[in-house]
Specification:
Elements (H helix, E strand, L loop, with lengths): L1 H9 L7 E16 L2 E2 L3 E3 L3 E9 L10 E8 L5 E9 L2 E8 L3 E10 L2 E15 L8
Antiparallel strand pairs: 1-9, 2-8, 3-8, 4-7, 4-9, 5-6, 5-8
Length: about 140
């Protein structure tokens, strides 16, 4: 019996199960004032996270301002999804959910300074470390 317990104690436990995880890869950041269009970029996942900020700094008083950010197909030019449609200053996080694609963003803005960062989704598997045995 002692030999069986010793033999079982020497064998390591099976590794813990793997977990799916999502991370984000920085594509690029843009900032400006007024209308603009970004250069095109490729998204391997089609899942984009946009962190944006629109402020009234430097704006004439009395105007609420507008910030609209639309994802377009860089192949056909057609609009795919409005990611942000903001009246007045604000900030937040928006998501674009499309097939893998070449994109560009069109910015429509009036009386606001704006900035935004685009990140592409990256998925993978996390393998937790096996607990170490102490002698």
């Amino acid at each position: 019996m002692a030999a069986l317990v010793t033999t079982l104690a020497c064998h390591s436990a099976p590794p813990p199960p793997a977990r799916q995880a999502v991370g984000w890869h920085l594509v690029r950041s843009w900032s400006g004032r007024g209308n603009s269009q970004t250069e095109s970029f490729e998204s391997a996942s089609g899942q984009l996270r946009i962190r944006w900020h629109a402020s009234a700094e430097g704006s004439p008083g009395g105007s609420a301002g507008l910030f609209r950010l639309t994802a377009h197909s860089a192949i056909s030019g057609r609009p795919l999804q409005v990611a942000v449609d903001q009246l007045g200053p604000g900030e937040g996080t928006a998501y674009v959910d499309q097939d893998p694609h070449d994109f560009y963003f069109a910015v429509e803005s009036a009386n606001l300074d704006w900035s935004f960062t685009v990140e592409d989704s990256v998925s993978g598997t996390l393998q937790e470390a096996s607990p170490t045995r102490r002698p």
